[in-house]
């Protein structure tokens, strides 16, 4: 599968999905889901179990099923029992850092005989840390998942969750739904071997984080090692809290970076923060590319129904973009006068030799302006029903206002304590 064909290939069943046929398609699906207790994985599990007539859902978990059920009840308290009551969910005990994920032979045989769709969402999103650790958590398990899935007799599609920031080595501007090589035709296998044996990478420091670098290498290795496997690399931008399902604002703070960023910014009382303005701007007019996690789940499942392969990006081009300046403005406009006086003062500078504040160094993508092309998903806007991607600007603004009030309220309560 070449990067060119991955970018332009038409989804085989897109027309059928648009006509409302995705429910019938899922009647024939048995799904193997990883990361089912995480932010995106939990949202997918909710939709697969309660919004779609999925035949069966195998969910890979660590430890034991009771631990997984506990996590599910914590993240989706009002829906966990309903999900379990469908009797469609079967927890599979395993460990992604072992061969065959440590799955028992009899269970593995069931997967090989029954699974038609694999959705691999499990990841460890840690922006700082050694590149080797990032590979062991976010690259090698994906390769093992593909190796396992290559033996699934009824497999129609393997969806691997990646990130749009695999291309954070690129300059600002349009980023297409394709693989961008890092100069020349370097061998991904040699790069992997170098990192695993020596702990070093020839591309250290070129990406926004070792996490995004590991995902970049994962994509290249996955497509080169498994050219005949039907693979979809789904690249979301920044996860935002859910718009509608499982409930409005669903999503833990650690999985919704702009919520965490907003809290950190608001709580830096009385400070003066220096931020580098994005090239070509004097303020924070650059887009912070965020999309609600339930819309990412919808896009994932619609592409699954259409059996899309290759690379698709899912970001604010399919939603409503928000800028740095707008986030700051919402905070100021909705805080009390007393709180406003304590908010940090933001200074944007075009002089990149000037040291930035800690928060700016931590969130490097905040001062960049990549425009992620989502052209292969425009057709999703035509779909109605529970997997609809249609959102009016008023609904998006209301969500942002509610989350801002929540963050301000939590900070006020903390200050009172």
TrEMBL record:
Superkingdom as given in the UniProt entry: Eukaryota
Residue ranges annotated for the Thioester reductase (TE) domain, each copy included: 33-299
Keywords recorded for this protein, A-Z: Lipid biosynthesis, Lipid metabolism, NADP, Oxidoreductase
One Gene Ontology term, aspect cellular component: peroxisome
Top EC class for this record: oxidoreductase
PANTHER family: FATTY ACYL-COA REDUCTASE CG8306-RELATED, MALE STERILITY PROTEIN 2-RELATED
Function: Catalyzes the reduction of fatty acyl-CoA to fatty alcohols.
Protein name, per record: Fatty acyl-CoA reductase
Upper classification of the organism: Eukaryota, Fungi, Dikarya, Ascomycota, Pezizomycotina
């Amino acid at each position: 599968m070449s990067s060119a064909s991955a970018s332009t290939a038409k989804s085989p069943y897109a027309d059928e999905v648009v006509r409302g046929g995705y429910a019938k398609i899922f009647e024939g699906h048995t799904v193997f889901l990883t990361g089912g207790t995480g932010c995106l994985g939990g949202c997918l599990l909710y939709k697969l179990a309660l919004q779609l007539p999925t035949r069966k859902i195998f969910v890979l978990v660590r430890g034991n099923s009771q631990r997984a059920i506990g996590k599910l009840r914590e993240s989706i308290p009002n829906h966990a029992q309903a999900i379990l009551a469908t009797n469609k969910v079967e927890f599979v005990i395993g460990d992604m850092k072992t061969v065959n994920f440590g799955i028992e032979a009899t269970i593995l045989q069931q997967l090989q005989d029954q699974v038609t769709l694999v959705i691999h969402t499990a990841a460890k999103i840690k922006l700082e840390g050694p590149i080797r650790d990032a590979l062991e958590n976010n690259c090698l398990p994906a390769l093992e998942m593909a190796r396992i899935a290559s033996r699934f007799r009824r497999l129609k599609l393997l969806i691997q969750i990646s990130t749009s920031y695999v291309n954070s080595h690129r300059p600002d501007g349009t980023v297409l739904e394709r693989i961008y090589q890092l100069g020349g035709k370097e061998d991904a296998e040699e790069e992997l071997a170098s990192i695993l044996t020596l702990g070093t990478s020839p591309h250290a420091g070129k990406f926004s984080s070792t996490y995004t670098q590991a995902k970049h290498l994962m994509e290249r290795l996955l497509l080169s090692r498994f050219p005949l496997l039907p693979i979809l690399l789904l690249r979301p931008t920044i996860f935002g809290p859910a718009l509608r399902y499982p409930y409005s604002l669903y999503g833990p703070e650690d999985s919704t970076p702009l919520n965490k960023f907003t809290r950190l910014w608001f709580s830096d009382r009385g400070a003066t923060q220096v931020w580098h303005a994005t090239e070509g701007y004097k303020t924070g007019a650059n887009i912070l590319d965020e999309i609600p996690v339930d819309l990412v789940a919808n896009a994932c499942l619609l592409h699954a129904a259409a059996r899309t392969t290759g690379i698709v990006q899912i970001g604010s081009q399919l939603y409503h973009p928000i800028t740095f300046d707008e986030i700051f403005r919402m905070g100021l406009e909705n805080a009390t006068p007393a709180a406003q006086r304590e908010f940090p003062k933001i200074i944007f500078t075009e002089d990149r030799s000037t040291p930035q504040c800690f928060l700016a160094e931590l969130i490097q993508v905040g001062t960049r302006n990549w425009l992620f092309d989502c052209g292969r998903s425009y057709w999703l806007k035509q779909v109605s029903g529970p997997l609809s991607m249609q959102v009016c600007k008023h609904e998006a603004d209301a969500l942002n206002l509610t989350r801002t009030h929540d963050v301000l309220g939590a900070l006020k309560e903390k200050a009172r304590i």
